[in-house]
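Practice problem 4.
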């Protein structure tokens, strides 16, 4: 390294979980990073409302400020790293940084899913750079892979286990036979789930990440409100056991498919074959499975969140942008793998038109002929049954009737289930889980 090389100066907005990881990694690997880059990377300021000085991390009092906007405007800052999270003030600070000529790194999937188009357009117009690898899959370099390594292929489908909280809960239910509530409490005790877990367990976090994946994989933009989103809170241990009996594992999948005229974009509990690689992704790990015309399937797997895994993605973005800065090679053109002006809004196939196979569970009255009546209604709606699990009659007044269907249109299934519910032969609303055989 040229010892006279001008350092690249970083402003860090937010020194919580990921921010602290970035500080640690830049400190631990500083010499190595400087020699890879040809110039030192230094943290020139940290904005955080509650951070106290931490000399052991090199965070002295003079580096810390409560005034993020003033830090972003500082002339000596080259790269603004936004790790506040949330929509505001993070969004306005990023736009302010771009107006001030700073490159940006963020891991904020919620913000990019909601305001990505505006932010990417601003970056392109200012001919700057933005990195956001940490926003999807934590330590998995999936965005760089879609943007660069798979650029020669035509991506057709993406299946992601992209929420570690949901995957931990489902793994706990599957591997230790515990109900959802107990698995959630365990995840909260071990720090894998927030005190308010709604964003994760209802699938919204995965939907944010799917919006980003769709843009990079297919060059189409969409907002979280266009993603059919269903969480895992209604999954029961009984469903997981029946799934196992049928040869499947239940995962919260973020699914996107490109059908040329429209895309599918949905997040919901999904049954996949137990021997599939995705079914073996356990606990807080994430994986993204991509199917391309030329390459066929490929899968990317690593820790999907947490301090140091996410920090590796953020620091890689910082280094890449610092390299571009030193080479004066930033164009703002391809942060999404496509010029932002060519990224058109996606036409999203309504969930009612999606064709899938289904797992169905009815709590049916323990009377002769019930199975036949259910099958008749399903048949009337063009739904054929592939297999049935029916337990022997016993002392209970209702018995579970479990079925796997062949492919059916979702609207037909919903109509059939509504009709079956009206027959008064089933106790509670029938449960259904989509099965993904194509993956
Ligand atoms: N944690 C992960 O594993 C992970 C993985 C991938 C991506 N991400 C993304 O990375 C970003 C940061 O996540 P995180 O887990 O590091 O969050 P975090 O632990 O809550 O850290 C955020 C830090 O920023 C501070 N902060 C937030 N808003 C502020 C404001 N307006 N003014 C001053 N300080 C403010 C917070 O202070 P207080 O503590 O006082 O609120 C906190 O110290 C988020 O966008 C998240 O989605 C996180």
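Answer key:
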């Amino acid at each position: 390294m040229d010892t006279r090389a001008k350092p690249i100066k970083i402003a860090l907005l937010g020194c919580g979980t990921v921010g602290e990881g970035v500080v640690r990694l830049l400190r631990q690997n500083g010499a190595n990073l400087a020699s890879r880059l040809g110039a030192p990377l230094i943290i020139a300021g940290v904005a955080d409302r509650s951070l106290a000085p931490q000399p052991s991390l090199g965070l002295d009092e003079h580096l810390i400020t409560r005034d993020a906007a003033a830090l972003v405007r500082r002339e000596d800052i080259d790269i603004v790293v936004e790790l506040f999270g949330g929509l505001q003030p993070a969004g306005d600070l990023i736009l302010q940084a771009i107006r001030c000529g700073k490159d940006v790194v963020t891991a904020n999937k919620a913000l990019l899913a909601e305001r990505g188009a505006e932010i990417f357009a601003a970056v392109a117009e200012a001919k700057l750079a933005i990195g956001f690898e940490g926003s999807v899959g934590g330590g998995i370099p999936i965005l760089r892979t879609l943007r660069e390594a798979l650029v020669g292929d035509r991506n057709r489908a993406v299946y992601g286990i992209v929420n570690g909280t949901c995957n931990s809960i489902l793994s706990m239910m599957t591997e230790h036979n515990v109900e959802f509530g107990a698995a959630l409490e365990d995840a909260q005790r071990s720090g894998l789930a927030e005190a308010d877990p709604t964003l994760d367990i209802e699938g919204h976090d995965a939907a944010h990440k799917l919006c980003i994946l769709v843009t990079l994989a297919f060059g189409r933009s969409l907002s979280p409100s266009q993603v059919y989103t269903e969480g895992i809170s209604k999954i029961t241990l009984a469903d997981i056991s029946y799934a196992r009996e049928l040869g499947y594992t239940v995962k919260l999948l973020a699914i996107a498919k490109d059908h040329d005229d429209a895309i599918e974009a949905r997040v919901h509990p999904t049954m996949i074959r137990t021997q599939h690689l995705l079914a073996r992704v356990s606990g807080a790990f994430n994986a993204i499975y991509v199917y391309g015309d030329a390459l066929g399937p490929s899968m990317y797997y690593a820790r999907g969140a947490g301090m140091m895994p996410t920090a590796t993605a953020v620091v890689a973005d910082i280094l890449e942008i610092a390299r571009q800065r030193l080479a004066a090679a930033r164009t703002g053109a391809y942060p999404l793998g496509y010029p932002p002006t060519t990224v058109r809004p996606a036409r999203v196939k309504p969930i009612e038109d999606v064709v899938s196979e289904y797992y169905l569970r009815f709590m049916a009255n323990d009377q002769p002929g019930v199975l036949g009546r259910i099958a008749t209604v399903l048949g009337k709606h063009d739904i054929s049954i592939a297999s049935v699990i029916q337990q022997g009659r016993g002392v209970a007044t209702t018995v579970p009737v479990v079925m796997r269907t062949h492919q059916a249109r979702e609207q037909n299934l919903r109509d059939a289930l509504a009709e079956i519910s009206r027959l008064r032969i089933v106790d509670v609303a029938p449960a259904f889980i989509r099965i993904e055989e194509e993956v």
